[in-house]
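Friendly challenge for the regulars: who can give me the structure tokens for this chain first? No prize, just bragging rights.
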Amino acid sequence: MISTNLDFKGKKYDLRFTAEVLFSLYDKFGVTDDIIRATHIFEPTNEGWANCCWLAARMAQQGELIARYMGHEPRAMLEAEELRTCATPHDATQLRAVVRAALEQGFRREIEDDGEPEEINLILQEREATKKAIAQGVSELCSWLERLRSSTTAPETPSA
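First reply, four minutes later:
Bragging rights claimed.
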């Protein structure tokens, strides 16, 4: 898993968007599809700022717990209230960028190319085949209608 570092008040915090953080988001906001829209974390509002600080603190706590699990010395946990009250506007811009990067890295999948062919989307493949069949049917229908029209109309005679 790739980490994202936040520099805040002279300290570095390792933000980790883990499954624990994801399920905490689901529980807190009651949504499982569009967490950015549900949390408003990137909106310039008090609610958005509070939620962004909560999420950043939650990810920093996970980063610290992972470091402790790996045998590193314990450090102080970052608290959401500290972010909300002590961050400058510049810090807020940096924090939102780091949170966005941590979300992207948390959802990223590392796929190794093992020589297997790419996965085929059968639904998309079926839709494309249906579109081609419809287009071919329309073309044949137009051709048939043109032949029918030309066989039922009287030939033009040159006028004298």
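The chain has six helices and two strands. The mean pLDDT is 85. Your move, everyone else.
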